[in-house]
Amino acid sequence: MTSAPGGREIAVVAFAQTVHRRTSDEFSEVEMLMPVLHEVLDRTGLKTADIDFTCSGSSDYLAGRAFSFTLALDGVGAWPPLSESHVEMDGAWALYEAWTKLLTGDADTALVYSYGKSSPGSVRDVLTRQLDPYYVAPLWPDSVALAALQAQALIDAGDTDEPALAAVAARNRETAAANRHAQLKGPVPQGDYLVRPLRTGDCPPIGDGAAAVILAAGDRARELCARPAWIRGIDHRIEAHGLGVRDLTDSPSTRLAAERAGAFERPVDTAELHAPFTAQEIVLRKALRLDDGVVVNPSGGALAANPIMAAGLIRIGEAAARIHRGASDRALAHATSGPCLQQNLVAVLEGEPR
Fold it and tell me: What's the whole-model pTM score?
């Protein structure tokens, strides 16, 4: 969808996130989330009662209990009653739902938040539950092994090599040095092979974290933010579930989502890519037609901090924050879910001319 129906403009007006950590055993999900919710509301001066719609993204599989997201609502507050929804996805998809809600005119403001605690269990094993339950999941190929298949396919196709992958990791973590929220910063050794050709440095850190954004429509957005990050287009697409019928060196769903979001209409100056593995950035750069003139992952991206279920929303928030402070005029944000870039969302954000 390249434009808002009826001409209603919607913008990200505030963004907040945790300092991402390897473990947060001393905090529950609610205790981890509450400071972020308070911070994002404080940035706009809004109270909980001023929010027309609330939408969250998380995974019960990570928490290990059904309907765990209902406990997180304690962080928002039990009163006044909420108009609330939840997606069992990354928070970027919760933002998409909130965006559609605002488009209808039923709400003028929305709070979107997501969180993930990956530290309590084995993320590599948990993520196998999203695979085909008949043919693939019983083999227990974990997320790193599948990413290694994708990386090897790229190497075999001549699209990259191991030194190029190491350079992707180094660049992301060097830029993360300026990001106080990042988990990994500065020079990080490539380390030993986890699954060839991927070394530890090619893979994201395991950690806990949360993020939140506030959306607002029209003049309400201008009241709440000096320079709103207007969502000019947003779209999401999905690849076939079967890995064997996909070309892992390409991402047609990302390309289509970007086209429908209007990303190719004019150049972007910034791109925040949700690429947890180094090889995935290679795939995304090609699908999104990003040249060297685009600043990619100035936050450090998912290689610097990858709280599952929040990392995609963080990409949108980081892109919006650069527009808020005048560091970007037109930014692209990407989020993914599933093995080997199976599901992809692309948003194009713009600031008003200065």
Answer: 0.95
